[in-house]
Amino acid sequence: MIKLMKGNNALVEGSISAGLDAYFGYPITPQNEITESMSVRMREEGRVFLQTESELASVNMIYGVAMTGKKALTSSSSPGISLMQETISYMAGCELPTVIVNVQRGGPGLGNISGAQGDYFQAVKGGGHGDYKMIVLTPSNVQEMYEMPKKAFYLAFKYKNPVMILADGVIGQMIEKVDLNELAKYPDEDEVFNASDWALTGCKNRSSRFIRSLIMEEGALTEHNYKLLEKFNKMEVEVDFEEVSTDDADVVLVGYGTSARIIYDAYLNLRDSGFNVGYLRPKTVFPFPSKRIAALADAGKKFMVVEMSSGQMVEDVRLAVLGKSEVQFYGIPGGGVPEVETIISKVKNMM
Amino acid sequence: MKFEMPESLKKTPQHYCPGCGHGIIHRILSEVIDELNIREKIIAVAPVGCAVFGYLYWDFDTCEAPHGRPPSVATAIKRTNPNKVVFTYQGDGDLAAIGGNEMLHTANRGENITIFFVNNVCYGMTGGQMAPTTMPNQVTTTTTQGRTEEDGYPMKVCELLSNIDYVHYLERVAVNSPANTLKAKAAIKKAMENQLNGKGFSLVEILAMCPTAWYQTPVESLQMIEDTISKAFPLGVFKDS
Amino acid sequence: MKKEIIITGYGGQGIMQAGNILIKAAILEDKVTTFFPSYGAEMRGGAANCKVIISDEFIGSPIVYKPDYVLCFSRLAFEKFRKSLKPDGLMFLNSDLVKIENNIDVLVLEANTLSEKFGSKIMANMAMLGLFIARVKLLKQASMEEAIKESFKHKGEKIVNLNIEVFRAGLDCV
């Protein structure tokens, strides 16, 4: 079914198609359509919806649902996501599958309600306390807002870890065409979503279970961390990105989310003018397409990274490139949107 | 009469200090769960505080919540698993200080869960700091000259929640004597039955001894509840509707 | 073909609705389209605009900096957006709301007055859409009317018909 839909509304439909059991949310712009639409759609579907007293309550509610092996999601925007960080760390420590959606707005502080990409570090480099990682998916269009919740739940259950959908106010608010097709089934999804060997469901016909992140026995927390680290390293295979015309490119444009749409305009324009540029869009930013970027750097390609921030993802590009090639950055923080013409002139200067 | 360990309690030594109230409360709570035959339906939420290790002693499914958030965790578990029996076990720091907002709103929604609120008028696990429930003039590691007016007045959770329409049952009990302990067990049982009968939000506040943080002997701490604490926090039913 | 449109004024003037009707009509003609809203903290009365792109090919950024067309419903927006128009761009102005000197090259319509003839000035946005479509022929009249119908059907047939009448009256004003 083809429809015109806001990114935020498409995310709701995609979550419901993915089998969401419970949604919890607190109002904050620019993601309110998610909470509002969930209030109608989850009730229609006979599933759990609750408007909470705070983002703290929301995130702890999805934590509670995950304890029982069911699928729960919360959504918010930047300040609300900051409030959730403690419990995201608990989820990683307890190895619980949950999905958190951040429709990023301008910051720091209360900031503004425009789309922004200033929460990359928070999402990718920790945010909460302790050594942990979270898989981070970055939708760039309304279709992906529909499709990514299913993928997020699949990965969350596969790795027993929180997964974040890192959107932004532009993707959340914009309307475009979306195909609300039935979501493809993963070959092993029945197995992956089956939580019967670990979830808290009452100790009928089995010994009792507990789920915790407090591990006080000497050396045990170190062991637990090594086990988690091994898991985070395994996530590497989930890296996902879109790449166009990098083979003959002198400069590769790199961006995610809304920035990826903007660099695509610049890419088309530059190619039309005869410049050899390529396009690379990470669809996961953890794991990050470091190996691919390293290979492109080895092949002598330069990089122009574009973000709606002061420069966050560019650090991961530079880590992948390791000084072997030139990496330039252009970004506008605080809810500003990079301009195609500026990207074009900056790339021309790199040629 | 044969005196046995409740099935709901693991045969494990507990870490609690001599004279602590938690051991008694764990015991009567486990007895109630056995008597109601609900052990296999329980999903319990342990707090941050002395009872954080509840899951090492209780022989039913248990999770741990971030500090102050057990009511939110329990709300979500119950709403998605309405056939399970869900309770939180929280101290005064967890419920009345850092978790005050979650407590209020969970009560205001009349969630069909049960909260066991163990009030020992201090932060025990972190070494005896002042709690919202600490007595006037009580010496703690953060009120070394005694709690003054500037530090606030003991927070009365049952009285506070009694003003909320959707709250079904509130009772304050104590475990400082055999007679009080029997009343406490009856209140715990009633609160669990309320959930089984779909009556909504029930909270039992249990005044409990913490001789270590009160700088007292176990016997003195029993008397402290009798003479001082239960005067500031009167025992009884605050709501049953 | 790629055309970028900004509809701008204050919240409550039907700015977002006008944009929504354009993208619905565009989809009916199998075009690629995006809509991006922008507004202040308030739901009513604050500056608001939406950016609509209609194209035959993939649309990258949904943000519009240099529009081909501006449909303008306030003085503030007029001052702001007249400078950002493309060199061959066109400004459409509700001249009941913004009085300008004659020598400025804009297409004006007393859209409130026109709408009021049908009972209420609330349909001024439809009048402006009519003027716009008549002048630039970006979308077909039939798809516009289908989109209007789709947008108002939850309010009943009478409201649908009134809006279509105002749209048609706007069409005739070019």
Question: Care to describe what's here?
Answer:
The complex is a heterotrimer of chains A (351), B (241) and C (174). Chain A has 14 helices and 15 strands. With 351 residues, chain A is an alpha/beta fold. Chain B has one domain (22-240): Thiamin diphosphate (ThDP)-binding fold, Pyr/PP domains (Rossmann fold, 3-Layer(aba) Sandwich), CATH 3.40.50. Chain B is 37% helix and 16% strand. A 7-stranded mixed beta sheet of chain B has the order 2-1-3-4-6-5-7, sandwiched between helices. In chain B, α1 crosses α7 (178-196) and α4 (92-98) packs across α5. The longest helix of chain B has 19 residues, at 178-196. The N and C termini of chain B lie far apart (36 Å). Chain C has 174 residues and is of the alpha/beta class. Chain C is 39% helix and 22% strand. Chain C has 6 helices and 6 strands; from the N terminus they run βαβββαββαααα. Chain C has a 6-stranded mixed beta sheet, with helices on both faces. In chain C, α4 (124-136) crosses α6 and α5 (141-152) runs antiparallel to α6 (157-171). Chain C is globular. The chains are: A alpha/beta (351), B alpha/beta (241), C alpha/beta (174). Chains in contact: A-B, A-C. The A-B interface holds A 21-22, 24, 48, 50, 52-54, 56-57, 60-65, 67-68, 70, 72, 86-87, 90, 94, 200-205, 208-214 and B 39-43, 45-46, 52-53, 55-56, 58-66, 69, 72-77, 79-81, 84, 101-102, 104-105. β9 of chain A pairs parallel with β2 (61-64) of chain B.
